[in-house]
Design goal:
The chain is an alpha+beta fold. The chain folds into 3 domains: 153 residues, no CATH class; 305 residues, no CATH class; 35 residues, no CATH class. 52% of the residues lie in helices and 9% in strands. It is built from 20 helices and 9 strands. A 5-stranded antiparallel β-sheet has the order 6-1-3-2-7, sandwiched between helices. The chain has a two-stranded antiparallel sheet with strand order 4-5. Strands 8-9 form a two-stranded antiparallel ribbon. The longest helix has 22 residues. It is globular and about 85 Å long. 33% of the residues are buried. InterPro entries: Helitron_helicase-like. It holds the Pfam family Helitron_like_N. This is Helitron helicase-like domain-containing protein. It comes from Candolleomyces aberdarensis.
């Protein structure tokens, strides 16, 4: 991937990734799935009414919120789910997402409730690190001054250099973990003593990567205990509010002076967008440094530079994406924005008297919460949320684990893939028949079905490169063992049936080696 011809080729990375994906599917089906199971799934596939399948796909294409109720449609969806879940070793597949979801929930069982939910959107089109990873001809000093490439040239470079973008994203996320969180280090991080983190990587509409991360902090009580402490102690509420306001800000830095600086920042942004000239984008330069100025000068420049970054990255403008999950008839208003930017402002941090839900101070109607130092260091859009207390915290954790591990494939696309798999299996059956041996037609047909499912998932060039040369689809300090619960239940049922037989003497322990533990390091 260091060869420029291969890196910039629009197809090579996808072809290489598909080979790895098919290898993982083959390995998973041959060594992790019983022949009886894939034989049953192929039988279920061939029994599906293709006309019914087509009509169901069309309904879901027209209305993604449609949920079938009749038995035939439900059986089709169940077959689709069973195939998807067998591709657990394929990055980005539904089974891999489910595996990540289980890992997050296992961390919740082990470490308790997470404290923070952080979203990072590193800007590959602006950050000078992309030029450095792309090994351009410009020297590092000139790159950090931001004067070598225009805004448009930086965008073109990012689109042509997916390897550099993937390496840049990996470097930024790891820098956040090592420098800001400082998980596993003896000293405390920016938010407190971090004892755990789990970040899931996704791609946005244009293919750029972002990371949703749950953060566990030492001393954070469970949701119910936190609610009780908040109800019983005014001092505890006051200290929690002060801490939250120190790490979560919802307005420009520097108060009234900061708002005056913002007028200048907006003018510079408009001049750059309209004329292509003017000042350099704040995300494309190194920014102020303590090595080159006094403390007072640095903090003054820090505030100004951070406010310019806020103008570029953290002012939310409503788009169609904000309302893409609305049901028919629901209004496309700020109140229904799925990002939660409703335009409401809060002059101070307060707690609900009954539920102890915390609402953090926010005095800008369109700004997402951010941590000033993190925004300054990473030079990108970010968002930070406090998980909270009581029932609301439990609901939030359930929502977050579902949201950050959601499948990238729309349901109607999955059904189209299912229809293709059925046609391929039927064609193979007519040509050579389906025998039930592991090396026979059944396994081949099942591989066709699984490959069809994962092959219809949308994936960007940067995502492919993140799997090949970057950090993959998640970041965590956790170590997990996957226990096959279904296999254990089948083993116990088999031993119980054998013990009930009057003709056999069976050891209570039997052959426990049939239950396998798989360790992830």
């Amino acid at each position: 991937m260091d060869d420029e011809c291969f890196e910039e080729d629009n197809e090579f990375a996808f072809l290489f990734y598909n080979i790895i994906r098919k290898k993982n599917v083959s390995h998973g089906l041959r060594f992790s799935t019983s022949a009886r199971r894939y034989k049953q799934t192929v039988d279920d596939l061939l029994s599906i009414d293709q006309v019914r399948l087509f009509h169901l796909a069309e309904k879901l294409r027209g209305d993604q919120m449609y949920r079938p109720t009749n038995d035939d449609d439900l059986r089709i969806l169940e077959t689709l789910k069973s195939i998807n879940l067998l591709a657990r070793e394929v990055p980005g597949s539904a089974a891999q997402k489910l595996k990540m979801r289980n890992e997050i929930r296992s961390m919740m069982i082990s470490l308790g409730a997470p404290t923070l939910f952080v979203t990072l959107n590193p800007s590959d089109k602006d950050n000078p690190l992309v030029q450095i990873y792309a090994d351009t001809e410009h020297d590092v000093e000139s790159i950090l001054r931001g004067g070598e490439l225009s805004d448009w040239e930086r965008r073109v470079l990012a689109s042509k250099k997916p390897v550099a973008c993937a390496k840049f994203f990996d470097a930024v996320v790891k820098a956040f973990i090592n420098t800001v969180l400082r998980c596993g280090k003896p000293d405390t991080g920016l938010y407190g003593k971090c004892i755990g983190y789990y970040g899931a990587v996704e791609a946005q509409g244009r293919g750029t990567l972002h990371c949703h991360m749950l953060v566990w902090l030492h001393g954070h009580p469970p949701p119910r205990a936190l609610r009780q402490r908040l109800q019983q102690s005014a001092m505890y509420r006051e200290k929690l509010a002060l801490w939250l306001e120190s790490i979560m800000q919802g307005d420009f830095v520097g108060g009234q002076r900061g708002r005056q600086e913002v007028k200048s920042a907006w003018s510079k942004r408009l001049e750059r967008e309209i004329t292509g000239g003017g000042s350099v984008h704040p995300g494309a330069v190194a920014g102020p440094s303590l090595k080159e100025m006094s403390h007072s000068e640095f903090w003054e420049e820090f505030e100004y530079h951070t406010n310019r970054l806020l103008v570029e990255y953290n002012i939310h403008e409503h788009t169609s994406t904000c309302w893409k999950y609305l049901a028919r008839g629901e209004a496309k208003t700020p109140e229904n924005c799925r990002m939660g930017i409703t335009g409401q402002m809060h002059e101070k941090t307060y707690f609900d008297d009954e539920t102890m839900r915390v609402t953090v101070k926010k005095t800008h109607p369109k700004m997402t919460y951010f941590t000033p130092l993190v925004l300054f260091l990473l030079k990108c859009n970010m968002d930070i949320k406090f998980v909270g207390a009581g029932v609301d915290a439990n609901a939030f954790m359930f929502y977050v684990t579902d949201y950050i591990t959601k499948s990238a494939m729309a349901l109607h696309v999955g059904l189209a893939a299912l229809a293709y798999a059925i046609k391929r299996i039927e064609a193979d059956s007519r040509e050579g028949g389906l025998d039930s041996s592991p090396e026979g037609g059944v396994l081949r047909s099942f591989m066709i079905a699984v490959n069809s499912m994962v092959g219809h998932q949308e994936i960007s060039h940067q995502q492919v490169m993140s799997y090949l040369v970057g950090g993959g689809d998640h970041y965590t300090n956790g170590s997990f063992r996957t226990f096959n619960w279904g296999e254990l239940l089948r083993y116990i049922q088999g031993r119980c049936d054998a013990l009930d037989s009057p003709d056999r003497e069976v050891s209570p322990l039997g052959e426990m080696s049939n239950v396998t533990l798989i360790e992830k390091t």
